[in-house]
Structures are given as C-alpha cells and as structure tokens.
C-alpha cells in the first residue's frame, strides 16, 4: 500500500543505521544524504570495514598482477608471430 508523506525543508527522515521499513520516492524537491565519518562508527564495525577493504585491495592487486602478466604474454606471442 502506498502512502503520501510530506516533509518540510531540513527534516531528518531517518538516521544512518536505522532498519529500513519504507521506500521513498521523491516527487518534488531535493534530498540530502549524510553518511557519518569514520570516527562515528563503532570500533567493531570499523575493524570489519578495514578487513573488507584489505580483501578488496588484495583482489585488486591480484587482478592487476594477472592483467600485467597476460599483457606480457600477449606481447611475447605477438613478437613470435611477427618473426614467424
């Protein structure tokens, strides 16, 4: 079921971390989204984010290294084909 809600300017509709129980569609006006700084995040959540970021960094490094290796092999193959 749909309900129409109206908010006046600068009204906080929900806080970061709240459980979502609604879906908002902006019909008119604008919205501002604020995400808290890392200092506002509990220590256990911060550690979890650091671990996820480290895994992401590792994955990017792995992909980058694999990409470089693939390019080197491709260049060697092209040189061999040119000589042949």
Structural class by secondary-structure content: mainly alpha
Residues in helix, %? 40-55%
- The stretches of 5 or more residues where confidence is low (pLDDT under 50) are none
Q: Kindly, what is the distance between the CA atoms of the first and last residues, rounded to a whole number of angstroms?
A: 71 Å
Largest sheet: none
| Number of E-state strands | 0
Number of helices: 1
Radius of gyration (CA) equals: 25 Å
Helix and strand pattern: H
Shape: elongated
**Beta-strand share of residues:** under 5%
- Mean pLDDT, rounded to whole units? 81
Describe this structure in words.
This protein is an all-alpha fold and 84 residues long. It has a domain at 38-83. 49% of the residues lie in helices and 0% in strands. The model has no long low-confidence stretch (mean pLDDT 81).
